[in-house]
Design brief:
Elements lengths: L7 E2 L6 E2 L14 H7 L4 H14 L1 E2 L8 E2 L10 E5 L3 E4 H10 L7 E4 L13 E4 L1 H11 L7 H4 L10 H10 L5 H8 L3 H8 L12
Helix pairs in contact: 7-8
The structure holds zinc ion (2 copies).
The site of one zinc ion (ZN) has 7 residues, from loops.
C-alpha cells in the first residue's frame, strides 16, 4: 500500500517533488520529461497510478469506520474511477477490493456486507459474494424495496438485481449470448432479455 506524503514521489524517476500548482490535483510525475515517459507506462506503473488515484479520493479512517469515496458518485452513491485506458471505469468499492485483495473472480460481486454503505471503500467492510447471497443480504436487512414500480414497472424482473449486476450484464451483452450470461451470473434469463431490449436499466450507460 502507498503512503501519501505531502511531497510526492515521481512515478517515473522516483525523485521527490512538490506539486507546483497548489489547488490542482497532485501530479504523478515531477517534470515534463517524466510526464512524456508516462505515456509509455508499464503495467506495473499503470497499477501504481491506479492505486494513487484511488487513495487520493478516499477519506481513509480507522479499520472499523467507513472510508468514504470523495470523488464522483452515481445516484446510488457508488463512486467510480478510471482503472486503465484498456479496462475503462471501475466502481470505487470494486477498485478497493482489487487493490487490497487482488482480481475479482469472474461473475462475483463485491458486497458491502458490514456497513451497507455504497460510497464506502473500507476493504474490511467489503465481501466477495454472489448475486444470490447479496439478494439474501438485502432481504435480511429489509432494504429491498417492494415497489421499485414507479421507475421500472412492478413486473420488472430487473428490480431484483443490483446496479453492479446490471452493469455486468450490459458489458457481457457486447460479446456473449443472453442465455449464457444468465447462467453465468445465476439470474433469470428474462432479466438479461429485458436489458438487451433496453426495456430496463436503460438509464445505465457504459463509459467507454
Ligand atoms: Zn520524474
Ligand atoms: Zn463501510
Amino acid at each position: 500500500m502507498i503512503k501519501m506524503k505531502p511531497k510526492s514521489e515521481c512515478l517515473i524517476c522516483k525523485n521527490p517533488f512538490i506539486n507546483k500548482n497548489p489547488g490542482r490535483r497532485p501530479g504523478l510525475t515531477c517534470s515534463i520529461i517524466c510526464e512524456g515517459k508516462k505515456r509509455r507506462f508499464t503495467d506495473e506503473q499503470k497499477e501504481e497510478s491506479f492505486k494513487r488515484r484511488f487513495f487520493e479520493k478516499i477519506d481513509k479512517k480507522s479499520i472499523n469506520e467507513c472510508w468514504l469515496w470523495k470523488g464522483f458518485r452515481n445516484k446510488k452513491g457508488y463512486g467510480s474511477l478510471m482503472h486503465t485506458k484498456e479496462n475503462g471505469q471501475v466502481q470505487a468499492h470494486r477498485a478497493s477490493w482489487m487493490i487490497h485483495y487482488g482480481e475479482i473472480p469472474n461473475g462475483l460481486i463485491i458486497m458491502h456486507s458490514v456497513c451497507d454503505n455504497p460510497p464506502c471503500c473500507n476493504p474490511n467492510h467489503l465481501q466477495l459474494g454472489t448475486i444470490a447471497l447479496n439478494q439474501q443480504d438485502m432481504v435480511n436487512k429489509g432494504r429491498q424495496k417492494k415497489g421499485n414500480a414507479g421507475i421500472f414497472g412492478s413486473n420488472s424482473y430487473s428490480a431484483k438485481i443490483t446496479e453492479d449486476i446490471a452493469l455486468k450484464i450490459i458489458e457481457s451483452l457486447k460479446n456473449e449470448k443472453a442465455i449464457r450470461i444468465a447462467k453465468e451470473l445465476n439470474v433469470s434469463k428474462y432479466i438479461v432479455y429485458d436489458i438487451k431490449r433496453k426495456k430496463t436499466w436503460k438509464h445505465i450507460k457504459l463509459e467507454s
